[in-house]
Design brief:
single chain, 397 residues, nine-stranded mixed sheet, two-stranded antiparallel sheet, 11 strands, disordered N terminus
């Protein structure tokens, strides 16, 4: 393999998304997680039009004892810049922020972010069981013995928002209904049949107020994103999508240390990302938001500034989140309908880039009111039980 590029690099370079791709997703019974990583990486590289020899940075998490060393070895890469940050669902937006900073500073020229998981297939084949907690050591030892599971923490936060602001189960259900409607036109989505608010409310209760359809699906799948310095843009196969700004934040792990159950760390990461990008929430054409549960979408919309605190319930009504709504959200169907193989944050970036490029396809592509392609998108990932957040603002020229 050719050695990574060497020599002096200039600082403060612009950073572009050069290539994005999904691996096979949904039901993938025969592939290993490593194979999904490789498939997504090859497809993203092909999408970029660049040779693999340009890759000198690599970011991965969630697989292997020495992630991302094992994955890089599997892919035949020898990076000189590496990131293995793992903060749950926010991992990939945080990694993208790190990679963009490294490229801008001249520490790397081309960074590949890649993820793959067979979460669904592993359970079906009894290679693993569903987990009820993230562990019982450290601060978590004071919560786990009482059955305080991941979903229970989200349910408590949702209940607090309902108590404080009058948010209703029907409003939360609207988020699931619109996600499924967006998935209907996505051939890669695992669930595409329409659902109604009554369907959501009538489902089996998982953790009050969440019924089954309030919760993300479990699927297999992977994806990859290649970020490059502006120097590579003339060689790209497609017009670049630029990383305009990013922000990261963490807040708590112990629920007793969470200042306000109705505020997520996206309130900080979003503000930083928009300020650094030099744009306002009102200028954003579409949003890709981590949606492990419907409440996550609602509170993130508030915290990113798309509506005031407490007004998320009213905001998500009347089809605002649909592809042709006032603010298209999770246009691929999100984790509630399209795919959710684990840490889904990288899928948000893939979908945002495809929409900005105009590649989403018939009946799925977002357009501005004047009929032109979207100019600005935001991807916001959440990790843990609102413990961490990463937000990235993307734009095209």
């Amino acid at each position: 393999m050719p050695s990574p590029a060497s020599g002096p690099r200039s600082g403060n370079r612009k950073v572009a998304v050069a290539g994005v791709a999904l691996s096979d997703c949904g039901r993938v019974d025969e592939a290993t997680p490593y194979a999904l990583h490789a498939q997504a990486a090859r497809r993203a590289l092909a999408d970029s039009g660049l040779d693999r020899s340009v890759i000198d940075g690599f970011a991965s998490a969630g697989l292997g004892t020495l992630a991302p060393v094992e994955v890089a070895e599997y892919l035949g890469l020898r990076p000189t810049w590496v990131d293995s940050t793992s903060v749950g669902g926010a991992t990939w937006e945080v990694m993208a922020a790190h990679a963009a900073d490294a490229i801008a500073a001249g520490h790397a020229d081309a960074v590949l972010l890649v993820y793959g998981s067979t979460a669904r297939a592993d359970i079906k084949a009894r290679r693993r069981t569903a987990n009820l907690s993230f562990g019982a050591r450290g601060p978590l030892q004071f919560e786990v013995p009482y059955g305080h599971t991941l979903i229970a923490k989200y349910a408590m936060a949702a209940r607090r928002h309902m108590h404080q602001y009058g948010t209703t189960p029907e409003q939360l259900a609207q988020i699931a209904v619109q996600a499924r409607a967006n998935a209907a036109a996505n051939p890669d989505a695992l669930y595409r049949d329409p659902i109604t608010v009554d369907d959501v409310l009538a489902g089996p209760m998982i953790a009050d107020p969440f019924t089954k359809l309030h919760c993300c699906i479990r699927s297999d799948g992977g994806c990859a994103v290649l970020l490059v310095a502006e120097d590579h843009v003339p060689d790209l196969a497609k017009p670049p999508v630029w990383v305009l700004g990013s922000g990261t934040a963490v807040s708590h792990t112990t629920m007793s240390e969470w200042d306000d159950f109705t505020v997520s760390p996206a309130a900080v990461s979003g503000r930083l990302a928009f300020e650094r990008a030099g744009v306002r929430p009102s200028e954003i054409d579409l949003a890709q938001i981590y949606d492990a549960f419907t409440y996550m979408t609602l509170v993130t919309l508030e915290d990113l500034g798309f509506c005031a605190k407490g007004e998320g319930g009213a905001f998500v009504e009347k089809g605002r989140l649909l592809r042709d709504g006032a603010l298209p959200v999770n246009t691929d169907g999100g984790g509630l309908a399209a795919c959710h193989p684990g840490m889904r944050g990288l899928f948000l970036l893939v979908e945002a880039v495809r929409q900005l490029r105009g590649e989403a396809g018939p009946n799925r592509q977002v357009h501005r009111p004047d009929g032109t392609l979207p100019h600005l998108a935001v991807a916001s990932g959440t990790g843990g039980w609102f413990c961490s957040s990463g937000t990235v603002v993307l734009g095209r020229e």
